Every structure is written in structure tokens, then in C-alpha cells.
Amino acid sequence: MDAKRITAGNVTQLKMADAGRSLRHVFIRDFVVDCLIGIHEHERNGLQRVQINLDLAVSEDENPVNDDIRNVICYENLADGIMAIIDGGHVNLVETLAEAIACMALEDPRVYSARVRIEKLDIIEKAASVGVEIERYNQV
User: Fold this and answer.
1) Distance between CA 75 and CA 39 in Å, rounded?
2) What contacts 24+ positions apart, CB below 8 Å, involve 102-108?
3) Smallest Cα–Cα separation from 34: which of 76, 86, 85?
4) DSSP state, 118?
5) CA dihedral 30, 34, 38, 43 (to 10 degrees)
6) Domain boundaries, the chain
7) Residue 75, Cα to own-chain centre: how many angstroms?
8) CATH 3.90.78.10 is the classification of domain 5-137
9) What span, in angstroms and rounded, lies between the C-alpha atoms of 57 and 112?
10) For the whole model, what pTM was predicted?
11) DSSP at 21
12) pLDDT digits over 94-104, tens only?
């Protein structure tokens, strides 16, 4: 699928919702969970608040939605998938967590791209958060 892109300077960004390309935008915003994450000893022994944002560009195929959950990406299933990854145990890096969430979302062939932002909320006193944002494309 050739998605329309928005270019600003040297950064090319996928335009998520796009009627011309039949892309729907599915998202989970500001999903705050307790997570075992980090490389420092104190991070290995206690939960930290992490905020997750997941944005998906989803192909709208020729089949109509028909008010049927089977015809769309279910954000409840996405949230459950995120929790299964978090419940899988300690992760050293926010980058690793972001990659795992993107891979989970891209398992559905209707998902063209996944943008994942992971933010640690309580790390730097004068910062609201620190973290990473990645974007991955489906190879299917």
C-alpha cells in the first residue's frame, strides 16, 4: 500500500487517516500502566508508571463495517495485548517495549503502520516524561 506522506524538513511522516487511500486511524491515548522497566537496580525492584500511546493506520478494505466488531480493529484487544506484554516480565529499555507493542499490533494484516510512544512519567523531576516514539510498517 502506498500511503500518502507529509514531509516537513527532512522528516517524512505517514498521514494516518486518509480517505483517498482508505486508511482508518485507530488509537489508544495516554494508557497509563505500572511496569517493570529500566536498567538501574532500583528500577528492577519496583513498578514504574509508564504512559503508552498507540496509533495505527488501518486499511479499510472493500468490506463494509456493518456495525460489526469483527470488521474493525478492536482497541480492547490492543489494550489486552499491551498488558500481556507488560505482564511478561521486566524489560530493560523503553525501546524494547515499544518494539514489542508495534510487533503485536502489526500481527493483524489490516494494520499498515504502528506508531508507539512509551513515556516514563516519574524519572526526571523537572520533566513531565521521558521516553521514545517509534513507527513501524507492516511487511505483509
Assistant:
1) 30
2) 102/134, 102/135, 102/136, 103/136, 104/78, 105/54, 105/56, 105/78, 105/81, 106/136, 106/137, 106/138, 108/73
3) 86
4) E
5) 140
6) 5-137
7) 11
8) no
9) 5
10) 0.84
11) G
12) 999 999 999 99
* CA atoms of 81 and 47, how far apart (whole Å): 19
Q: Which residue has the higher pLDDT, 124 or 71?
A: 124
Beta bridge partners of 113: 57, 137
The residues, ordered by sequence, that sit 6+ positions from 50 with a Cβ below 8 Å of its Cβ are: 32, 33, 34, 35, 37, 86, 94, 97, 118, 119, 120, 121
C-alpha cell at 102: 508495534
Task: Give per-residue pLDDT as tens, 34-76.
Answer: 999 999 998 998 999 999 999 999 987 766 788 888 888 999 9
Cell of residue 64, nine digits = 463494509
C-alpha cell at position 44: 528492577
Could you tell me which residues come within 8 angstroms of residue 139 by beta carbon, excluding any fewer than 6 positions away? none
Grid look-up 522497566 returns 37
